[in-house]
Amino acid sequence: MISSHIITEKTKEKLHDMKSDAFKIFSAGVDAVMPKSFISKALKVDNERLIVQDCCYHIANNVYVVGFGKAVAGMARAVEDIIGNHLVEGVISIPEGTTDIMSQNGKRDLLPASDSKILVLEGARHNLPDKNSSAAADCIISLVKKLKATDILLVLISGGGSALFPAPVPPITLDEKIAVIKLLSIRGATIQEMNSVRKQLSVVKGGGLAAMAKSAQVVSLILSDIVGDPLDLIASGPTVRNTDDTSYPLEILKKYNIENEVSQSVLGVLKKPRKLYEKDIYHVQNLLIGTNKQALEAARATAFQCNYYPCVLTTSLQGEAKIVGWAIAYLSVMCLELNNLKTIEESKVEKLCAALCVTKSSLIELLTTLKACRKGFCIICGGETTVKVTGQGKGGRNQEMALEYSLQSYYLSSPRLSSSTSVLLSAGTDGIDGPTDAAGAFGYHELILKALEQGLDPGKYLLNNDSYGFYVKCNGGNDLIKIGHTGTNVMDIQVLLVRTVQD
Fold first, then answer.
1. Are 278 and 210 a contacting pair, CB within 8 Å?
2. What is the DSSP string of 328-370?
3. Contact criterion met (CB below 8 Å) for 477 and 471
4. From edge to edge, which strands make up the β-sheet containing 492-499?
5. Rounded to two decimals, what is the model's pTM?
């Protein structure tokens, strides 16, 4: 049934408050995974000892730093603050525009100091390798190859590192490698699948960098942006042995029907047995220092402070953004109809669980708990979805999910729920959603009413993968979440708030 109720002043006020609460909850999650706190916990200097968890290294003006990823600038700053004069030299590769954005937003503390020994190089516009990030990779390779047995190499790794540290296996060119990644992305390949392909097409990924630095003592500090925190896939695992089956990357190309669209150089490399680095990377200490789960726990605590009953539903949200948007909309209606759950079709429940990456027992436990609750709900999810691009528009996975949520909430609503309100915030912790200047967006039933009043057809924007174009035109763009580069990256956070008229 399509709702036709108008947006009352009371509803507008409630929406404003809920969006403010959702943003506060999301921001708490982001703040909890900023690099400084992780690095300070991971690294300790005690006289002539560098202590990393349960390992000790002799430190005496012999520390080198390399890094690549969206969160690496802040990680590098934290490292140089701790290591001090023991730092000899460093090179980091970070996204284009990071230095200017951080400086303009008063976040200089998330950049290496002005007198830093760390060279900062920027590239990978729109999260794709380019000549600048390729040049940065060459600088990093040159540095690590000259290290000695007494040297300590700190490798800083975060999401986005794959694009910021490209080094194609000859004879593959950079353009040929970019073409493969673009094709996989457009077809909706997961980050796990793309990075498995990247590992076999690169001389530095899949343990390659660690092998190049085999003369030194290597410590990798890793911030995870992949569901399940697989160290061999984060930034395509430059310091972790590649355990993929040799045939797996070719199977991925076949799965997405692109094996006939890539270059012969790419196919040739993928058909050859890959180089293994089993004997070359025993000297590496890989340490996971930050995850999406930590962000969600901080968000949960803040939701409780905002007078919501909070629940972390999953840290493994994956799949197509539109399908997940439908699922969260259906879940919000279930939360509002807790007394009528017996009427919900079993097939819908199974589809819902599959889309949300949860078990049926977990979903039932959640709904049972919420049924006994007498205040607003906050359901928090984390992970990273994908977009299957068939249109010509502009957007990102979070904006597409939020718009789909809005549209489905509109269709699923009924007159008896007209006094209730739900809001979804979906955004990337790195502050970037696709090739846009937004981190994500808000989704809610009334957004569609506003769109119809303006003569906008949300369905057409979704079909054209133009969620950003929709949000710019609808409601003056006020439902886009624009926060700039945050300095961290642990995938996405979804915050669903549900309140009834009594709340």
1. no
2. HHHHHHHHHTGGGGGGS-HHHHHHHHHHHT--HHHHHHHHHHH
3. yes
4. 309-317, 377-383, 492-499, 421-428, 440-443, 480-481
5. 0.91
Q: Is there a contact between 476 and 310 (Cβ–Cβ < 8 Å)? A: no
CA distance 370 to 309: 8
184 contacts 258 by C-beta, under 8 angstroms: yes
Question: Tell me: the pLDDT tens digits for 200-221?
Answer: 999 999 999 999 999 999 999 9
Cα(388)–Cα(322) distance, integer angstroms:
9
Backbone torsions φ then ψ of 82, nearest 5 degrees: -85, -45
CA atoms of 487 and 160, how far apart (whole Å): 12
Q: Is the pLDDT confidence value at 6 over 70?
A: no
* 8-state DSSP, 117: S
Cα gap 39→76, rounded to integer Å: 9
- The helix/strand/coil state of 51 is strand
Q: 38-67: per-residue pLDDT in tens? A: 999 999 999 899 999 989 999 999 999 999
The DSSP line for 426-479 is EEETTS--SSSS-SEEEE-HHHHHHHHHTT--HHHHHHTT-HHHHHHHGGGGTT
Q: DSSP for 269-315? A: HHHSPPPP-TTTSTTEEEEEEE-HHHHHHHHHHHHHHTT-EEEEEEE
Q: Which two structure tokens, joined as six digits, stand for 431?
A: 């502050």
Gap between the Cα atoms of 101 and 341, Å rounded: 48
Q: How far apart are the first and last CA of the chain?
A: 25
For residues 395 and 493, give the distance between their C-alpha atoms in angstroms, rounded to a whole number: 17
| Mean pLDDT value across residues 377-385 | 96
d(CA 75, CA 77) in angstroms, rounded, equals 5
